[in-house]
Amino acid sequence: MNKIIIKANGPLVALGKIRVEDKDGNTITEDDEVYLCRCGHSANKPFCDGAHKEHGFTDAAHIQDDKSEPASGNDPLCITIRENAMLIASGPMSIQNEEDSFQTTRNKAALCRCGHSDNKPFCDGHHKTCGFTAA
User: Fold this and answer.
1) How far apart are CA 93 and CA 1, in angstroms?
2) Cα separation of 90 and 76, whole Å?
3) How far apart are CA 135 and CA 118, in angstroms?
4) Over the stretch 5-53, which tens digit does the pLDDT of each residue have?
5) Burial letters for 65-88: b for 16+ Cβ neighbours within 10 Å, e otherwise?
6) N or C: which end of the chain has fewer CB within 10 A?
7) 73, 106 in Cβ contact below 8 A?
8) 92 is in which domain, residue-wise?
9) Would 134 be classed as within a structural domain?
């Protein structure tokens, strides 16, 4: 199963069969480990470049087990970049903190990459009002 690990005060780490696509569906990378920015300050968006340290990004993982549809299968996890907006993850995945003390499994998730969501790691639409820009 694919995993997205939420690093406290840091990036999202996608592990498994991972494909990252731009807004037009073109593959940017296919790998088994991808570090994705969630602070909004990386100069290499959507990828993490360590800018969260310089900008003092703080956030612990706040997810809880939920009643979303269970993820299953061995299909790739496709992460699509929405222009000036969130990341859309589609495919079987678990999303968990780095201690694996809680997680959720699902087949689709909208993930924050502007750093302003009140529901991190999930998007709550703050990218529309905080001035976030990124292809």
Assistant:
1) 6
2) 8
3) 22
4) 999 999 999 999 999 999 999 999 999 999 999 999 999 999 999 999 9
5) eeeeeebeeebebbbbbbeebbbb
6) C
7) no
8) 2-128
9) no
